[in-house]
Design brief:
Blueprint: H1 2-29, H2 36-47, E1 51-53, E2 58-60, E3 64-75, E4 82-94, E5 102-111, E6 114-119, E7 147-150, E8 153-164, E9 169-180, E10 183-184, E11 189-200, E12 203-217, E13 222-236, E14 239-253, E15 258-272, E16 275-289, E17 292-306, E18 309-323, E19 327-339, E20 343-356, E21 361-375, E22 382-394, E23 399-408, E24 411-420, E25 426-437, E26 469-481, E27 484-496, E28 499-509, E29 512-521, E30 527-538, H3 539-547, E31 552-565, H4 569-574, E32 577-591, H5 594-597, E33 610-613, E34 615-632, E35 635-644, E36 648-657, E37 662-671, E38 688-696, E39 701-704, H6 706-755
Parallel strand pairs: 5-7, 5-8, 6-8, 25-26
Antiparallel strand pairs: 1-3, 2-3, 3-4, 4-5, 4-6, 7-10, 8-9, 9-11, 11-12, 12-13, 13-14, 14-15, 15-16, 16-17, 17-18, 18-19, 19-20, 20-21, 21-22, 22-23, 23-24, 24-25, 26-27, 27-28, 28-29, 29-30, 30-31, 31-32, 32-34, 33-39, 34-35, 35-36, 36-37, 37-38, 38-39
Length: 757
């Protein structure tokens, strides 16, 4: 036995000795640099690419088989343009393990690798010749399994680029750094990597850093990541200052189809426009075994700071269990809080959730929503409510249906909502609300939120309407919004492909009612058509609440049929066309008291025009006011004004420039016989007084044009004298006719008397 063992050891030693001697001889005598020209020529002949081997090539054979390369570059096919290059590369394998079908890689080291892949406009790429499929269809013999064992991997200063000439997309992988400890079956391998990824479709610039310990068993197909730590920073799309962090442990057994995650934590933060956001997810225990999965204490927290306030939300799932066919969550709990400068809203939502992942159906069968608000302007500084309902979701058919009823802060609501299609959703709603004061929940305007008066006007952005697909009806018993108060509001909306039609739009308001429609075309340049009739409305409070307009009083009717078009509000006002009319009774025009102003009017003959600013304490009463307007390119022209009162009659004509928010109007007031009751008793009956109203809406001026008044007075005086002369001449003529007739009668009587003697 000893002899056999001794013989075996000698034989093995001899083989190893021969191998070592052969390797030593090759290392001492073989120079691969002598074959550079042949290698370069072979590449040129087979691939039509130019290979540059500017650095030395060195080989080692014992105790490791290895190769070192430096300053290597390869051109594009049939071109001198560089395709790929590297500064240095080293690969070495242990020699002796190869005899037992084991691959033990001592080192893989790459430095300064760079390559560019291009997809041409015709669909081909610049690597087609390098990755061409082999035409040899003969099956390769099955190889015996090999054992992988890599002592170390180092990749430094490496970059890759991809260009798509068809789409213009361009992506770069830069500064790739990778380092690992020993990689082998059952051996924990520490891995660290960093890389910068940049692209333009979509816009992205992200730096990723990763650290973890990898343990695997290729034969058992099991893999573990321990101490996973991932950090991502940069920009993507319109999000800047993006930061993503993920940590935890994960494992997978592909043979048994088991997956586990322990202490998984993800944090995300960033800035989008003028708003910032952050979120963090924690999942202490997630398990998926075959077709069954469980999870406990899943928590998602999120924060958003935007112009409307600060939103804080938390979603928690105490436990989840189920399979691909069905799952159940006993209680989904969502808490949200919106903080504004002068008020705070809180929402608590809880519901059980059941679903089927195969049919993709989900059911929130018992939804409860508790809502509260606190703020100084709220009734009793606090409001709370509870709403109940249910929601069904079918993601396979892309359908969502919801039924809700109950309290919504100070309102009672019944709503049916539906969505079909997620990419371009078709939305349906039918909502009843008993009463709503929307102004209670709108943030106060501050110097920060108000737009500066000298800031450039921003274009209207109605692009969202182009993809809106909406049909619905809203009814509100009592509504206050933007300080306007209405009752029995009904709005039916249809919106499809950029065309929005609101019809009917009806309500009771300010002792009257309104009905009509609004049409918006957002397919190209925004265009709006308004057809609205107000009947029996009290104008003064409506104008004051809606537009802080406090110049006109009265009850009556207003009709509007106008259209406008433009990318900005100012453009729409200047492009307004259509008609408008009003008919009011028992009202007044604020700013001037015409009757009072004409007190002592005789003494004003020959004076210059008296210009005065509107005085809200003064007003001219009327019993009836009618006017119609034709609106052309933002200018409303009127020439049929008729205003009546016991003391005067008013007519006139002029323009209201809606585009410039100004007026230029000449009215003529004919006074009654006396101003008694208006602070005077001068006899000025029948006198016509020209009154011009002009200037911007915010600073209107009234002027009495006395020169015209004198001319009119003189004309009236001459007319009176002519009439008097005509009357005197007619009277004299009548007298002469009467005398001649009497004389003729006397003569006839005398003649007849002599005839009968």
């Amino acid at each position: 036995m000893n002899k056999i063992l001794k013989t075996g050891l000698i034989t093995t030693a001899s083989v190893v000795g021969v191998a070592v001697a052969g390797a030593a001889y090759l290392a001492a005598t073989f120079d691969p640099n002598a074959y550079k020209a042949q290698i370069i020529k072979a590449v040129q002949d087979s691939k039509h690419r130019t290979l540059h081997l500017d650095g030395d090539i060195s080989l080692s054979f014992f105790p490791n088989i290895g190769v070192n390369l430096s300053k290597v570059a390869l051109s594009e096919a049939n071109s001198d343009k560089e395709f790929a290059a590297l500064n240095s590369a080293r690969v070495s394998l242990a020699l002796l393990p190869l005899f037992s079908k084991q691959i033990v890689v001592n080192e893989v080291s790459l430095n300064g690798v760079r390559a560019t892949v291009i997809k041409h406009k015709d669909g081909t790429s610049n690597i087609d010749d390098l990755v061409a499929k082999s035409t040899d269809t003969q099956a390769a013999p099955a190889s015996q399994s090999v054992k992988l064992d890599i002592a170390k991997v180092v990749v430094a200063d490496t970059a890759f680029s991809y260009q798509d000439e068809q789409t213009g997309a361009h992506y770069d992988i830069k500064d790739l750094q990778l380092e690992s400890s020993r990689i082998a079956n059952g051996v924990p391998a520490k891995i660290s990597m960093s890389v910068l990824v940049q692209g333009n479709q979509p816009k992205v610039a992200l730096k990723t850093e990763l650290k973890t310990t990898l343990t695997f068993d290729i034969d058992k197909q099991s893999y573990q990541l321990a101490g996973l730590d991932i950090k991502v920073t940069g920009e993507v799309l319109d999000i800047t200052q993006l930061q993503v962090q993920a940590s935890g442990d994960a494992s997978a057994d592909l043979k048994t189809r088991e997956f586990f995650a322990k202490q998984l934590a993800v944090k995300v933060s960033g800035v989008q426009g003028k708003q910032s956001f952050s979120a963090d997810l924690s999942a202490p225990d997630l398990n998926l075994s075959n077709d069954h999965y469980t999870g406990t204490k899943l928590v998602l927290n999120a924060n958003l700071e935007a112009a409307f306030g600060k939103l804080i939300a938390s979603l928690s799932i105490p436990s989840i269990s189920g399979s691909a066919q069905a799952f159940k969550i006993d209680d989904v709990l969502l808490n949200a809080q919106l903080e504004q400068a002068d008020q705070t809203f809180k929402v608590k939502l809880n519901t059980p959730l059941a679903g089927n992942m195969v049919s993709q159906q989900f059911d929130l069968s018992n939804l409860n929503i508790d809502m509260s608000a606190t703020g100084d302007k709220l009734p009793n500084k606090s409001i709370s409510s509870t709403m109940k309902g249910n929601v069904q979701l079918n993601t396979k058919k892309q359908i969502v249906q919801a039924n809700l009823s109950g309290g919504l802060l100070q309102s009672q609501l019944r709503a049916k909502l539906g969505v079909k299609g997620f990419a371009q959703p078709s939305i349906y709603f039918d909502v009843d609300v008993d009463q709503l004061d929307a102004d209670l929940y709108l943030p106060k305007k501050t110097a920060e939120t108000a737009a500066p008066t000298n800031s450039p006007e921003q274009p209207l952005d109605l692009s969202a309407l182009r993809t809106l697909n909406l049909d619905g009806s809203l009814r509100i018993g009592s509504l206050k919004a933007a300080n306007v108060k209405v009752k029995q509001l009904r709005i039916d909306v249809q919106a499809h492909k950029g065309i929005v039609n609101v019809s009917p739009l009806s309500a009771e308001l300010y002792q009257g009612s309104t009905s009509g429609s609004i049409n918006i075309n957002a397919q190209a340049t925004p265009a709006i058509v308004i057809k609205q009739t107000l009947t029996g409305v009290d104008i003064a409070p409506l104008g004051k609440d809606a537009a802080n307009f406090d110049t006109l009083e009265g009850h009556g009717n207003i009709a509007l049929n106008i259209s406008m078009q433009g990318d900005k509000v100012s453009e729409m006002k200047r492009a307004m066309n259509g008609t408008a009319s009003l008919s009011l009774v028992d009202g007044a025009i604020k700013g001037i008291n015409v009757a009072k102003k004409m007190r002592g009017v005789k003494s004003m003959f020959g004076a210059k025009s008296d210009i005065q600013t509107a005085d809200k304490a003064e007003k001219t009463d009327f019993s009836e006011l009618k006017a119609s307007f034709k609106i052309t390119n933002g200018v409303a022209h009127n020439d049929d004004l008729s205003m009546k009162s016991p003391l005067l009659r008013l007519s006139g004509a002029g323009d209201i420039n809606i585009g410039n928010d100004s007026i230029d109007y000449l009215a003529k007031a004919t006074l009654a016989k006396t101003l008694e009751g208006q602070g005077g008793a001068d006899a000025v009956g029948g006198l016509t007084v020209p009154l011009r109203v002009h200037g911007p809406f915010t600073d209107m001026k009234y002027s009495l044009e006395f020169g015209a008044m004198v001319s009119d007075g003189a004309k009236q005086k001459v007319t009176a004298q002519v009439d008097a002369a005509k009357a005197a001449a007619q009277q004299k003529l009548d007298a002469e006719k009467a005398a001649a007739k009497s004389k003729l009668q006397d003569q006839l009587k005398g003649g007849l008397k002599g005839l009968f003697k």
